[in-house]
Amino acid sequence: MERVARVSEVIAASPVSFDEAIKAGFERASRTLRNITGLRIIEQRVAVENGNISEYRVRLEVIFVLEQ
């Protein structure tokens, strides 16, 4: 049986941590994509305001298998 996968890019953010931003991105992707098999963190950034980190941002690739 052949399987075909697809990749969708998601950008997510959290004021708490990179881990929370990744979880937020995954949870959002899970609402519309089925058969997710993995995530790849492409990029991590922070936003800085007044000398403090104000937001953690991640760019993710969400890998999912297409239904037959």
Summarize the structure.
By secondary structure, the chain is α+β, with helices and mostly antiparallel strands.
Task: Please explain how this structure is put together.
The protein is α+β, with helices and mostly antiparallel strands. It has one domain: 2-Layer Sandwich (Dodecin subunit-like), CATH 3.30.1660.10. The protein is 22% helix and 56% strand. It has a three-stranded antiparallel sheet with strand order 1-3-2, covered by helices on one side. The model has no long low-confidence stretch (mean pLDDT 95).
Radius of gyration: 14 Å
Alpha-beta classification:
alpha+beta
Distance between the termini: 10 Å
Which architecture would the CATH scheme give at its second level? 2-Layer Sandwich
Kindly estimate the percentage of residues that lie in beta strands according to DSSP: over 45%
In DSSP terms (H or I, runs of 4 or more residues), the helix count works out at 1
Outline the low-pLDDT stretches: none
Number of strand elements: 3
CATH topology: Dodecin subunit-like
Main β-sheet, spatial strand arrangement: 1-3-2
Mean pLDDT: 95
